[in-house]
Amino acid sequence: MAPKETTTNSNSNGMQEFKLAVIGGGGVGKSALTVQFIQNIYIEEYDPTIEDSYRKHAKIDDKPVFLEILDTAGQEEYKALRDSYMRTADGFLMVYSVIDRKTFEEVNEFYEQILRVKDCDKAPMVLVGNKCDLESERVIRIDEAKVYSKQLGIPMIETSAKQRLNVDESFALLVREVRKSLKSSDEDQLTKKKKKPCSIL
Amino acid sequence: MQEITLPRTSSTSSLKGSNNTPSDGNTACTTTTSDTTQRGRHQPSHHSTASLAESEIKLGTNLLNSNTTRKEYRKQNTFRNLMSTSSNDILEEINSPASPTTPNDTLSSTLLMDPKVEEMISLISQEYPSFISAEIDGKMEWEKDYELRFVLGPSNLSRYLGDEKFVQVKAFLFSKFLFIGKLTQTDPSMGGREFRIIRFDQYDWTVKGLADDSSFINAFCLKLEGESEIFTTNENSNLKKYWLEQLRRILDIPTFTEKQMQAIRENIQEYLEESTYSLEELQEYYTEPISELPQYQDLGETCQVIERKGITQGVQYATLEKVFQLLTDPHENDGDFLFTFLLTYKSFTTSMEVLKFLKSRFNTPPPVGCVDFQEWKRKLFEIRLRICEILYAWIHNFFYNFRKDLELQNETHHFINDVISNSKMIKAASIIQKCWNMKRKQRETFSAQQFQRQQQQLEALRRQLEEEKSKNKTSIFKKLFNFNSTSESESFASASLSISDNTEEQLMDSSMNIARQMCVIDMEIFNRIQPKECLNQAWSDANRRKNAPNIFNFIERSNHLAIYVAFLILNIDTPKKRAKVIEKFIKIAFVLRNLNNFHSMRAIMMSLLSNSIYRLKKSWELVSQKRMVQYKELEKLVSISANSKVLRDAMKQAELPSLPFMGILLSDLTFFEDGNPDERDGKININKRYQLASIIKRIVEYQKKPYDYPFHDCKTKWSNIYMAGRYTDDDLYNLSLEQEPRQ
Q1: Residues of chain B numbered 596-615 and touching chain A (CB < 8 Å)
Q2: Which has the higher per-residue pLDDT, B661 or B305?
Q3: Measured between beta carbons, which residues in chain B are less than 8 angstroms from residue A72?
Q4: Model's pTM, two decimal places?
Q5: Domains assigned to chain A
Q6: From CA B185, how far away is CA B180, in angstroms rounded?
Q7: Considering only alpha carbons, which residue of chain A is nearest residue B540?
Q8: Which of residues B274 and B195 earns the better pLDDT score?
Q9: What does the sequence similarity comment in the record state about its family (chain A) (predicted)?
Q10: Any residues with CB less than 8 A from the CB of B651 and at least 6 apart, and which?
């Protein structure tokens, strides 16, 4: 196998450091979600060309964490890019738009691909239904999404990047998932179970 | 006068006893190459040339008897006559005894003389005798046939050094560079002069006029990514206008050519000389009764200007009316603003509104209480010239706006032929009309049809593969992979003959030949991309095949290459041989990187990093150490960590010709669009449009310099790899599992 990109989960200060990928079809509002999360106070200009435009320090459950958001919005059509980009990430926000059924159906494809890339049967993921402010145009009911997320065994949340609703919450949910999986893989190693821990961790 | 033989060994003796009078034109010089690290993406990657792209050359003080072979220098007495009085003032200042001579002025020894620089210096010395001799360490890279063409100057400008400090400079504009000379302030012991050559063809410069404020009056800004050169014209706003006009022309923002402009000005001149003393006489210059024209209201400073580090960067927010005013202000000759406006106006107004405003501004009546009609007429023609320039640039560069809009076509036709033509601007009207006729004859350059045909073929091949798959459920999957499988759908059979499914056959040519071929083919596709495809995320919505066919095609090219590369690897049955194929592709990717083709390099890396290839443990173990080192390097290059910093930097520093990894530019366009408001408090976010336009301008820059490698002697073709697009990721993954089953 080709040498792996090493994924560190803590930086030199011992602070947790996660790479979170925002995944979803074109037009689901991924980029808006990322921008809203990175800029929690209203800053007039967003410049995506600089190094820090996708990084953020956050405190989740009273524990500080350094997050790098991997968002390739605009590059969705580079299909062959996905594998390597998924391999780099520690956790995934799988975003669909509640007003576009196609984007909801695409989630399964992403889900399968993530598991294949990670080469294991579980990875930290959160299902995110964006654009929930557009109630009148909604085609994906929250119940339907909940049933589906239960099937996948992952949490789900509805957001509105436009109204800044549940933006931070969705990322916090994912950080918790990543932490959970870290912990369980540690336990795996401690108890020397034969089960192979996820390759990312 | 003594003769100099170059390179000189020493000129120490001649430097002694120098004399600072301006008439003594001979100047020994010393050269220091300036800092070279902070340049933009056109910077040559080799330091030796980079340092020369913008050299600061310190000239020693004037030397009474110093050496020269150039007879132009002897013309010094006539040079003085050529200069304006104000220029002389500066000259006196620069040549004042404030510059002491020291025996240190000996650095000119053993320096090479670039013939082009020599020619330039002699040209300048005709105008400005104190800059007599200069030498540059090494060679500048000029095009063979570059003819030094003097454009404008000498002008007295002030160069802004930050912290409200200015330095007086003498500026000359040549067709490809700006030459700025000044007194050496930084090192008084040198007592010399310094000059700086800014070569426009090596950096991404843009030019902007700056609004007058407390720190700048009559100022303009030459802007490179991340830094600015701000100049203030010392005389008047007209000088600023000339500089902007000429700089804009040089920086290739296409409006009228110099020759056309001259013809138009000559045409107007006779009317300007005619005396106009009354409103009745002025009426002759209007196509409508003056009394019925709406008054023009100057909105003044109703826009929000952004400042960064104390430097005015431009307008950030403005109302639509203010945007129109800025656009048509004859003194705000900002080419960047014009390009940005014409590219993006559809996001905040309509073509018809723009035309309506241009018309009404063209017919601006004299202000209430105006008595000096002669003066008003002069002003009016300046405004009208600007309107004509805008209209010309609009038609010339953005004709697609007119193509399907009959009403707009009619109105524009009326404007050119009834209004402009009948307002004593017949020359301008005829030039614009000529451009219009030419554009109308031209077809859109899209090869959308060809692209569509490819897509149809691909669809048919995909269907065929699906059918075969369902028919042969029990057969070994691998057998389905045959590009040349004879199919019943004969219509597409011929096309499938032009791509090889035999790995060894396909990789017969040298890596260099294959890489070069890819460069040429990729560039052909890339060059079709139109600015309008880059807006409103046209490439990612459902109508992308219609609205952004060329961007889509360019992306598809890299997807198909990635699939084809994976296929050629997976097509081989033994790990040892597969390792050889992987090695070959690492080498090709490495050559592509050196040829600055980030597009195909990225596609091959995508393929090697895709699951189907990445998991081939047995094969990767057999890849040679040497290739593995290169692979690691490329893997770092394409890493998306830190916002793809490594790849971004490499792309910026690459010399042209180059092909970008378009994905990064598309992401930036997406985030600039989604991350910034379109307007605020009813004011349009102009800065956002500037940012979008700046990325699109980069694409246009790449398109200007194509690869020109010959590849007709290549044994294999890489043009039809779209045929590989029939296979899905799943197909490849299954093939991968078959070659190296899961353990």
Answers
A1: 603, 605-611, 613-615
A2: B661
A3: 640, 663, 667
A4: 0.71
A5: 16-190 (3.40.50.300)
A6: 14
A7: A26
A8: B274
A9: Belongs to the small GTPase superfamily. Ras family.
A10: B41, B598, B658, B660, B661, B664
